[in-house]
Amino acid sequence: MPSSLQCINCAQQYPIQRVIYACEACGGLLDVRHDFDALRKPISTDTFDDRLGTFEAPYNSGVWRYKELVYPGIDDGSIVSRMEGNTNLYVLPRVAAFAGINTLFLKHEGENPTGSFKDRGMTTGVTQARILGMDRVACASTGNTSASMASYAARAGMQGIIFLQNQQIALGKLAQGIAFGATCLQIDADFDRNMELVRLVSEKLGVYLLNSINPFRLEGQKSIMFEALQQLRWQVPDWIVVPGGNLGNSSAFGKGLLEMLEVGLIDRLPRLAIIQAEGANPLYRHFNSGFRQFEAVKAETIATAIKIGNPVNLQKAIRALEWTSGVVEEVSDQQIMDAKAIIDGVGIGCEPASACSVAGTKKLVERGIIKRGDTVLGILTGHVLKDPEATIAYHADQLADLSPMYANRMRQVDANLDEIVRVLAESAPSASDYT
User: Fold this and answer.
1) pLDDT, tens digit, 9 for 90 and up, residues 92-114
2) For 150-199, how does the pLDDT look when each residue is reduced to its tens digit (9 = 90+)?
């Protein structure tokens, strides 16, 4: 099989049949490396375009449609899939106007089977677990990873084990892990400590680890770029803007874009902008220091999906920024929730962390880094129902230290026809509200 594991620091290589998450020589992160020259036929846009709309597995998946770029040579019978991907790319003029640009595309990964982009990485991660003969898989999670892993583990007939913190887990995410039959451990620790614990437990018990330190996870997540560029007819935007938590997506995007350039699917690289919450901004601080000295932070933000203070994919994200001449920005919880209200208000919706893409674009435009005429592709990472509590609290003005600039307040009305008519008359929209 024309693939191997390779350290991003010292280039030491390992067989892909090894259960290994870091280089044994230097401790560096591992990449899955593919020898595209060894494939039986060259990769082309025609190959992927011909598979669009097929009902045939595995190509009906928005990940496995790009099988030659994701896991060349794999036997189709080994693949664990829920027809993930195939998410929509939206053109939203009102959101673009809010961000201060002319052309904004939003790729909504919340339309995946379990409601987040994690499904793209979990189909490849659980598939590798099956190839390795594993019967138990585990992850630490702020919510979305656990929901996805539990689903795919159940599909594969494996036990899923989830390490959760004991507070600030959105119910829409927690419910999925429980519903899909995973063993859920609620631990008195934040995500970063749970990440340490799950790595130790996985090594001690021989459980397959499915956090994004697992390089096979990122192989699936890079398909977000493959599919978005295919939807753009292989025309490269000026910017890719993505929320940054554990930095798996930004790392995967950098690798996927470089591979697309290598095989000739695109002719240039876009610039990457990684957006972090102000309360969970270790990469932003590291970027502004010139990458001199990394310091983890105690994460605190309403955007629970990116509430991570010590991201495991730091070095891969830095590499992606270097490849793409990228930037890192931070946004406040106020900016996140206001941007979310704008996205929700055009009938698309997203979880709080997703709104970093729009809030960050707006801030980068205001700083003059993104120009009004630039083409921007933003990534929405999770479904609006992932964190309904935050949405309701914002519109009811119940979030501490936040003022809802775009509130849609609930109206209490008596069971009286005249009263209902009066309230509806007062709230009738103007023509400009829907343009």
Assistant:
1) 999 999 999 999 999 999 999 99
2) 999 999 999 999 998 866 677 777 889 999 999 999 998 888 899 899 99
The pLDDT of residue 432: 56
Work out the percent of the chain whose per-residue pLDDT is above 90.
89
Domain 44-116+214-435 is found in CATH 1.10.150.130? no
pLDDT in tens, 367-416: 999 999 999 999 999 999 999 999 999 999 999 999 999 999 999 999 99
* pTM of the complete model: 0.95
Long-range (24+ apart) CB contacts under 8 A made by 342-346 are: 342/94, 342/95, 342/98, 342/406, 343/92, 343/95, 343/106, 343/380, 344/384, 344/391, 345/94, 345/406, 345/408, 346/92, 346/94, 346/95
Could you tell me the pLDDT band of residue 435, with boundaries at 50, 70 and 90?
low
**Domain-by-domain residue ranges, the chain?**
1-34, 44-116+214-435
- pLDDT exceeds 80 at position 243: yes
